[in-house]
Amino acid sequence: MYLFIYLILYFFLVFFLRSYLLWKKTKVNPLTFNKGDDAHGYNGKVFGFISVLELVVVSIYAFAPHGYQYLLPFWYLENDTLAVIGWGLLILSLILVWIAQSHMRESWRIGIDEENETELITSGFFSVSRNPIFLGIMIANIGLFLLLPNAFTLLIISLSSISINTQIRLEEAFLIEPFGEKYEQYRKNVKRWLTLKF
């Protein structure tokens, strides 16, 4: 039950509330995946499928435990240590994503916004990662797998890895046009996932 509540809270804070606050402030809809069949629109559908799959898996675990066996659990990975690590990663993900969204301010979008001008954010978490929000989402998916190690949470990691890496490359290609050399320099200085500075 706690995991179900966490997932609902995660979706509410990261997607619904953040989107509402941005729309209320700017009147811009941050949900920018199109409904077409191009790579961007298709990837948006994959993101939606992954979210629904997460909700279904966690709902079965919380409300229909007798059906959990049909998710093909990896029993040998079920232990308290991995569960604690899983919860730690889930909490870390929520904090990381929420703060990274705050750093993006009015430039935060879900997808590629081709209609409204945005600012290139290079400060805060974006000074050490070009994609801290996606990094946070991947951390959450790994945490979910450690809590519920089964074939479907492993599928979620696999699908999200492919989808997120595709989306990152689509966004990189898009950002070159409006920001040009500024973005190219940023891309040289900050790695796609994590830049370690000592």
Map the helices and strands:
Layout: H1 2-26, H2 39-63, H3 80-104, H4 132-147, H5 151-189
Helix pairs in contact: 1-2, 1-3, 2-5, 3-4, 4-5
Q: What descriptive keywords fit this protein?
A:
5 helices, 198 residues, Four Helix Bundle (Hemerythrin (Met), subunit A)
CATH top level assignment? Mainly Alpha
Detail the poorly predicted runs.
none
One letter per element, helices H and strands E, the order comes to HHHHH
- The rough form would be described as globular
CATH fold description: Four Helix Bundle (Hemerythrin (Met), subunit A)
With helices defined by DSSP (H or I, 4 residues minimum), what is the helix count? 5
Total count of domains: 1
Average of pLDDT:
92
Distance between the termini: 41 Å
CATH architecture: Up-down Bundle
Structural class: mainly alpha
Give the proportion of residues in helices: 55-70%
Largest sheet: none
- Oligomer type: single chain
Strand content: under 5%
Global Rg? 18 Å
Q: Got a strand count?
A: 0
Question: Describe it for me?
Answer:
This protein has one domain (2-189): Four Helix Bundle (Hemerythrin (Met), subunit A) (Up-down Bundle), CATH 1.20.120.1630. It is 66% helix and 0% strand. The protein contains 5 helices and no strands. Helix 1 (2-26) packs antiparallel against helix 2 (39-63). The longest helix is centred in the C-terminal third of the chain and has 39 residues, at 151-189. The termini are far apart. The model has no long low-confidence stretch (mean pLDDT 92).
